[in-house]
Backbone:
C-alpha cells in the first residue's frame, strides 16, 4: 500500500517535472531535434542512409569510455566559453570576445609554464591564475569602454578579438617561436605545469585518452557559477543590472562598476578555455589553435538558456558534434561544413522560437 | 618600391571593403545591427564562383552572388525584424551558416572568369566594380541625406516610434536597409572572387569585420565610410608590399584599434543611430 502510494507520487512528480521542462525548454528541444532531422534529410538528399548517420554519431560518441572521453575532451573548452558568454548575458552584456580572451589567456599560461620552474603544486594554480587574469584584462577593456564612454561592447569585443589574434601571432612568430621550427608555436611548457590526464587515475579510461583535469575544472566552474549567480550578493547585483539597470542604480548599485567586473569575470572564464588547450592538451601555444570556440560559446550559452547547468548540457551536445564530425567525414564522406551550417540554422531558429515563446506567455 | 606603386593594390583592397561598408551603412542607418557582413561577403564570393562555373558567364556569377546575398540578408531580416530576435546573435549565426554552407558545398578549385575590366587613363585597368564604389557612395549620400526617402530610412534607425507617427511601417524600411546590405556586401564578395579568380574557404578573412569597423569609423556616413575603407585598404596593401618594415600584425590591427578609439569618443565624436539594435517591445 505504502509503496504503491510512493510510486504513484513519484510518477506524478516526474510527470510534472517533465512537463515543466517541456514548457520551459521547448524551443531548445525543438531546435535540437530539428537540427538532427535536418542533417538526416541532407544525407537522404545525398543518397545516403540517414540511419547510418545516426548510428555513426552514436557509435563514435558513446560506444566506449575512450570515445566518450574524447567527447568530454571536446566539450571542455566549450563549457568555459559558454559560461563566459552566459555570465555576460545575464548582465545584459554580449561578450563576443571569448576568442581573443582565450588566446591571450592561453599565451599568458604558456609563458609562465615555459619560464617559471616551480613545483607542480605552485605552478599549475599560478598558470591558471595568470591565464584568468590575462583573459580578464582583455575582457575588462570593453567593459571599461562601455561603462566610461558608453561604447557598445559587441563592437569592442570583436575588435579586441582581432587585436588578440594579431598580438599572439606576432609574439609567437617573432619572439617566442620554438627554435629551428617552421610551425608557429612556442616551446613546450614544463612537466610541472601540465594537467594530468584522467586516464592516469581513473581505471576505465585508457591512458592515451586526451581527457584531462581541465574537464574537472570546467565542472567545478559550472557549479561555482551556479552558486555565484543564485546565492551571492554579486550574482544578485549582476542579474539586477542585466534585468533592470535603473532599479539597480536606485538601489545603490553602480551599474558601471558591475559592467566592468562582469566583463572581467567573463573574460577570465574564457581565458580558462585557453588553459584547457595549453596545459591539458598541446603543452604549448600554437598560433590560432582555437577552432572558433569563442563563437560556438555563443551558441552554447543560447542553447543552455544562459543557465550554468544548461550550458553544460549544450556544451556536451556541441562537444559531441565536434568529436563525431571527423568520423562522419571519414566514414560517410560528409564534409564537416554540414554541422557548421546546421549550427547556424539552429541558432537562428532558436532565437526566433524563443521570441515566439516569450510572446505566448 | 614607393607609395605610388601601392595605388593599384590599395584600390583592389578598398573595393570589397567599400561595398560591404556601404551595405552596412544602409542596414545600421535603418536600425539593424549587421555583424553578418562577413558572412554576406563570403556567400557573395561563393555565389559568384558557383554561378560562373555552372553558366560560364561572369555576369551570371554576379547575379547568383547577389541573389545568395539577398537570401542570406532576408534570413537576417526575418529573424530580427519579424521575430525581433537578438540582432547580434543572428548576425553571428549567419556568419557561421555561410562558413558551413560554403565548406559543405565547396566548388571545384579551378580558375573562373573575372568580371569585365575598364581601362581608364592615369588610374589603370580595373574591374568595373571598382568604379561603381564612388558612384554608389555619392548616390547613397544623396539618397540618405538629401531626400525624404533617406530621411525616413534614417528615422527608422533613430527612433522606434517616429515612423509610426507618419503611419509608416518601420519594418518595411528596415527590411529594405538589411536587403541593401545583402546586395552590396555580396557584390563586395563577388569582387573578391573575381579578382583572384577562385573561391577558397574563409577567403573573406575578416574583411566583413573591417568593413563594420569602417562603418563606425566613418560615423555611419557613406563618404566618410568609404574614406575609412581607403585608409584600411592602404594599411592592408602596405601589409602585402612589406614596405618600411612594419610588422604586418601592426598593420592588421590598425582598423580595429582606430575604431575602438573613435567609438570611445577619445577622438572626434561618434554618434550611432539612436535606435540601433532597438525594437519596440
Residues:
Amino acid at each position: 500500500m505504502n509503496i504503491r502510494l510512493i510510486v504513484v507520487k513519484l510518477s506524478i512528480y516526474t510527470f510534472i517535472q517533465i512537463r515543466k521542462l517541456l514548457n520551459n525548454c521547448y524551443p531548445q528541444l525543438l531546435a535540437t531535434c530539428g537540427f538532427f532531422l535536418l542533417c538526416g534529410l541532407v544525407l537522404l538528399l545525398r543518397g545516403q542512409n540517414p540511419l547510418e548517420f545516426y548510428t555513426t554519431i552514436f557509435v563514435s560518441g558513446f560506444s566506449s569510455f575512450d570515445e566518450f572521453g574524447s567527447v568530454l575532451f571536446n566539450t571542455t573548452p566549450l563549457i568555459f566559453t559558454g559560461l563566459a558568454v552566459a555570465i555576460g548575458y545575464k548582465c545584459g552584456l554580449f561578450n563576443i570576445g571569448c576568442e581573443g580572451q582565450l588566446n591571450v589567456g592561453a599565451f599568458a599560461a604558456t609563458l609562465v609554464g615555459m619560464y617559471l620552474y616551480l613545483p607542480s603544486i605552485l605552478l599549475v594554480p599560478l598558470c591558471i591564475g595568470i591565464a584568468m587574469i590575462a583573459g580578464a584584462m582583455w575582457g575588462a577593456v570593453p567593459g571599461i569602454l562601455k561603462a566610461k564612454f558608453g561604447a557598445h561592447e559587441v563592437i569592442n569585443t570583436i575588435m579586441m578579438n582581432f587585436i588578440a589574434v594579431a598580438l599572439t601571432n606576432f609574439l609567437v612568430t617573432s619572439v617566442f617561436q620554438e627554435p629551428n621550427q617552421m610551425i608557429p608555436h612556442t616551446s613546450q611548457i614544463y612537466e610541472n605545469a601540465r594537467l594530468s590526464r584522467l586516464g592516469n587515475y581513473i581505471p576505465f579510461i585508457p591512458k592515451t585518452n586526451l581527457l584531462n583535469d581541465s574537464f574537472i575544472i570546467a565542472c567545478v566552474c559550472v557549479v561555482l557559477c551556479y552558486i555565484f549567480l543564485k546565492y551571492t550578493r554579486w550574482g544578485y547585483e549582476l542579474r539586477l543590472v542585466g534585468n533592470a539597470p535603473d532599479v539597480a542604480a536606485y538601489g545603490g548599485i553602480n551599474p558601471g562598476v558591475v559592467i566592468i567586473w562582469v566583463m572581467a569575470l567573463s573574460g577570465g572564464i574564457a581565458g580558462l578555455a585557453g588553459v584547457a588547450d595549453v596545459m591539458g592538451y598541446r603543452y604549448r601555444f600554437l598560433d590560432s589553435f582555437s577552432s572558433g570556440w569563442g563563437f560556438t560559446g555563443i551558441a552554447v550559452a543560447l542553447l543552455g538558456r544562459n543557465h550554468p547547468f544548461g550550458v553544460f548540457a549544450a556544451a556536451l551536445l556541441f562537444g559531441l558534434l565536434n568529436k563525431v564530425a571527423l568520423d562522419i567525414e571519414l566514414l560517410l564522406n560528409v564534409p564537416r561544413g554540414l554541422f557548421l551550417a546546421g549550427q547556424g540554422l539552429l541558432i537562428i531558429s532558436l532565437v526566433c522560437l524563443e521570441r515566439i515563446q516569450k510572446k505566448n506567455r | 618600391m614607393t607609395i605610388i606603386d601601392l595605388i593599384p593594390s590599395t584600390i583592389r583592397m578598398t573595393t570589397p571593403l567599400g561595398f560591404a561598408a556601404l551595405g552596412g551603412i544602409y542596414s545600421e542607418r535603418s536600425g539593424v545591427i549587421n555583424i553578418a557582413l562577413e558572412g554576406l561577403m563570403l556567400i557573395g564570393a561563393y555565389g559568384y564562383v558557383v554561378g560562373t562555373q555552372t553558366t560560364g558567364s561572369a555576369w551570371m556569377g554576379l547575379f547568383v552572388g547577389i541573389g545568395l546575398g539577398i537570401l542570406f540578408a532576408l534570413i537576417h531580416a526575418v529573424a530580427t525584424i519579424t521575430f525581433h530576435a537578438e540582432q547580434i546573435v543572428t548576425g553571428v549565426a549567419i556568419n557561421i551558416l555561410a562558413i558551413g554552407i560554403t565548406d559543405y558545398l565547396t566548388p571545384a578549385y579551378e580558375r573562373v572568369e573575372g568580371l569585365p575590366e575598364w581601362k581608364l587613363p592615369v588610374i589603370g585597368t580595373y574591374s568595373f566594380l571598382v568604379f561603381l564604389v564612388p558612384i554608389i557612395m555619392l548616390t547613397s549620400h544623396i539618397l540618405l541625406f538629401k531626400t525624404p526617402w533617406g530621411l525616413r530610412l534614417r528615422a527608422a534607425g533613430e527612433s522606434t516610434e517616429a515612423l509610426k507617427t507618419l503611419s509608416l511601417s518601420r519594418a518595411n524600411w528596415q527590411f529594405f536597409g538589411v536587403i541593401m546590405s545583402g546586395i552590396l556586401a555580396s557584390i563586395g564578395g563577388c569582387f573578391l572572387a573575381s579578382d583572384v579568380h577562385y573561391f577558397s574557404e574563409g577567403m573573406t578573412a575578416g574583411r566583413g569585420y573591417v568593413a563594420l569597423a569602417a562603418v563606425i569609423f566613418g560615423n555611419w556616413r557613406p563618404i566618410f565610410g568609404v574614406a575609412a575603407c581607403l585608409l584600411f585598404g592602404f594599411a592592408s596593401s602596405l601589409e602585402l608590399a612589406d614596405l618600411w618594415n612594419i610588422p604586418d600584425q601592426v598593420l592588421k590591427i590598425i582598423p580595429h584599434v582606430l575604431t575602438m578609439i573613435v567609438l570611445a569618443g577619445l577622438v572626434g565624436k561618434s554618434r550611432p543611430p539612436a535606435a540601433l539594435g532597438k525594437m519596440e517591445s
About this structure: The mean pLDDT of chain B is 85.
